[in-house]
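Researcher: We plan to redesign the surface later, but first we want a full-length starting point. Tokens attached.
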């Protein structure tokens, strides 16, 4: 409708993603928003991609400053507060290190995002595997994904919030579908759990009574991975005053207690906001209103484009030697724009000039690439982000311009020839399939 069209054009949508996600995953989120009808293809620039640890940090700046004051005895001597964000979501755990400027209250990333698949669903998966081992594969196959999701929602999600080391037993309510699946197969739920260490089935309550130490074993691997990673990063970076733990999994007392047991609280405080699950949401809204609150990010990759250079013996790879118009050239040279690990200020725009290959060319092809290496020489092992043709004028003296804008969480770029036509621009469209 016309009302929706006006709404679609005027509203910015903030979508959050883990900071450890790559370019393709971010692009996938944008395409999903278009496919879902949230925006149209021509208005997809209204989507703002917010990184979840940045959202948590923006929402918890006052908490961070208060923790730093407590650590220092009331006075903050430094203009900058250095802290770590551990965003513990369902699937992933994002870990970043920031500097908070106390005067401007802006945030600068000083260590590129790291982390892994250690989120709360790791616990769910281990509980599911444990229950499947008891009821057997044949019965487990009859249960749907919705059955398992309901079991996890009712039981495991609550257990994550309530288990703090002082709880002796946990009640896991079995959905009717679980009981029916066992009985339809000719089994008896009570018999299945009889003799299982630390577990028994109460027919009266319709639930499994599980000793807390049995369930806590399902937490061991993700807690160890998270804590080892955080402690290692504290040693690597240094001078970190606070560790901010946010996200849904941060509601687990077991996780917080485990981190606190491994970190010297007199040197670095572990803090959890009052509503850790809402921290990312609140901060994402703040970011959407003012993206300038984040001033610097660390580049996860080396970005550039593929060029052909004059071949130089002893410098270039002879396997990439080609001949153009009788002259020896080196193909697939990686021309760097931003290097992996570089501090990139928000608002940074990098511009490069190129010459046409020969006077007869009517277009030039830009191959925008990225690499996991800091100083790649060639594009043979690089990832192709964009292959784009730019039409050329008849004037061979005019340079072709490539401009890459690193202002936001997605890369925007333009290509054009000086004095000829309109700039062609787009977000880098990655292969998200």
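Model: Full-length starting sequence:
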């Amino acid at each position: 409708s016309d009302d929706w069209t006006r709404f679609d054009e005027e509203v910015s949508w903030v979508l959050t993603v883990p900071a450890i996600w790559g370019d393709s995953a971010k692009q996938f989120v944008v395409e999903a928003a278009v496919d879902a009808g949230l925006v149209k293809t021509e208005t997809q620039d209204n989507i703002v991609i917010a990184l979840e640890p940045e959202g948590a940090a923006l929402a918890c700046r006052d908490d961070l400053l208060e923790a730093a004051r407590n650590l220092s005895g009331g006075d903050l001597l430094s203009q900058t507060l250095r802290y770590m964000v551990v965003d513990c979501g369902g699937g992933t755990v994002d870990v970043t290190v920031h500097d908070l400027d106390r005067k401007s209250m802006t945030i600068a990333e000083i260590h590129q995002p790291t982390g892994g698949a250690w989120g709360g669903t790791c616990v769910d998966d281990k509980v599911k595997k444990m229950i499947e081992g008891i009821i057997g594969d044949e019965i487990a196959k009859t249960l749907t994904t919705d059955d398992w999701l309901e079991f996890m929602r009712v039981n495991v999600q609550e257990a994550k919030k309530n288990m703090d080391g002082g709880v002796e037993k946990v009640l896991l309510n079995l959905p009717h579908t679980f009981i029916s699946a066992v009985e339809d197969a000719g089994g008896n739920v009570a018999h299945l759990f009889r003799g299982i260490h630390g577990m028994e089935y109460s027919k009266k309550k319709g639930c499994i009574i599980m000793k807390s130490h049995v369930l806590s074993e399902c937490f061991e691997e993700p807690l160890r991975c998270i804590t080892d990673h955080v402690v290692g990063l504290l040693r690597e970076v240094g001078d970190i005053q606070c560790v901010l733990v946010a996200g849904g999994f941060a509601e687990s007392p077991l996780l917080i207690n485990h981190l606190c047991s491994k970190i010297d609280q007199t040197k670095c405080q572990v803090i959890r906001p009052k509503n850790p699950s809402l921290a990312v949401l609140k901060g994402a809204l703040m970011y959407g209103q003012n993206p300038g609150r984040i001033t610097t990010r660390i580049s996860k990759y080396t970005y550039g484009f593929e060029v052909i250079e004059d071949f130089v013996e002893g410098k270039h790879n002879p396997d990439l030697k080609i001949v153009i118009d009788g002259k020896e050239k080196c193909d697939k040279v990686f021309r760097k724009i931003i290097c992996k690990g570089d501090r990139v200020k928000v608002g940074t725009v990098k511009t490069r000039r190129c010459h046409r290959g020969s006077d007869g060319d009517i277009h030039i092809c830009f191959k925008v690439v990225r690499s996991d290496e800091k100083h790649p020489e060639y594009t043979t092992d690089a990832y192709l982000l964009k292959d784009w043709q730019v039409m050329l004028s008849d004037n061979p003296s005019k340079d072709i311009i490539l401009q890459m804008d690193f202002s936001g969480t997605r890369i925007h770029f333009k290509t054009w020839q000086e004095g000829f036509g309109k700039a062609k621009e787009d977000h880098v469209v990655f292969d998200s399939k």
